[in-house]
Amino acid sequence: MTATNKITETNKMIENQEGIIITPDKILFFDMDGTLVDTNLANFSAYKKAVDSVLQPDTNLVYNPEIRFNRSMLKANFPHLIDKELEKVIQLKEILYDEFINVTTLINENVEVLLKYSKSNQTYLVTNCRKDRALKTLNHFGLIDRFTNVFYRKFDDNNKKVNKFENAISILGVPPNIVIAFENEEIEIADAKSAGITIINPVIA
């Protein structure tokens, strides 16, 4: 089989996932933000309060549920912020997140898969979230015990974010063809494919 044919077959596997049966030998990877838990409003609210605290006046930021507010959006909205102020906002946002954890909500479709298959399969949280925030969120919903283990955000020696799926697969020492990934971010889905995972967000038979 040529390289082109292999790519075509892989794409078919990714696209044709209706009726996937999860057997006990499959390993399940779950992202957290946007996959198991909708944390967008809590994240935005913590950012807004942090910005208001640092800049003093009301910043008039408007919540958009379709977009996750992040460091890049912070820079875009407040280009005058110096690096010291930017880091202060981000650090304060992490502290303030606790105040808004009650507005986070479960994404039931994926949580139901986790609850069902954590009884028979290895299930791992594979997230780019900070460890402390991930633990707070999972404990809030009583989900931490549903995972065999948890992989948090990691950076390489050059302070570059690593591919979280490649990292988990490498540490576990498992072939990617037995992994099923649940992920909502397009960039992270691309990372899953790059790591060799071919079953992503399947419809469960």
From TrEMBL:
<dbReference type="InterPro" id="IPR050155">
    <property type="entry name" value="HAD-like_hydrolase_sf"/>
</dbReference>
<dbReference type="GO" id="GO:0006281">
    <property type="term" value="P:DNA repair"/>
</dbReference>
<protein>
    <recommendedName>
        <fullName>phosphoglycolate phosphatase</fullName>
        <ecNumber>3.1.3.18</ecNumber>
    </recommendedName>
</protein>
<comment type="pathway">
    <text>Organic acid metabolism; glycolate biosynthesis; glycolate from 2-phosphoglycolate: step 1/1.</text>
</comment>
<dbReference type="Pfam" id="PF13419">
    <property type="entry name" value="HAD_2"/>
</dbReference>
<dbReference type="InterPro" id="IPR023214">
    <property type="entry name" value="HAD_sf"/>
</dbReference>
<dbReference type="InterPro" id="IPR041492">
    <property type="entry name" value="HAD_2"/>
</dbReference>
<comment type="similarity">
    <text>Belongs to the HAD-like hydrolase superfamily. CbbY/CbbZ/Gph/YieH family.</text>
</comment>
<dbReference type="GO" id="GO:0008967">
    <property type="term" value="F:phosphoglycolate phosphatase activity"/>
</dbReference>
<dbReference type="InterPro" id="IPR036412">
    <property type="entry name" value="HAD-like_sf"/>
</dbReference>
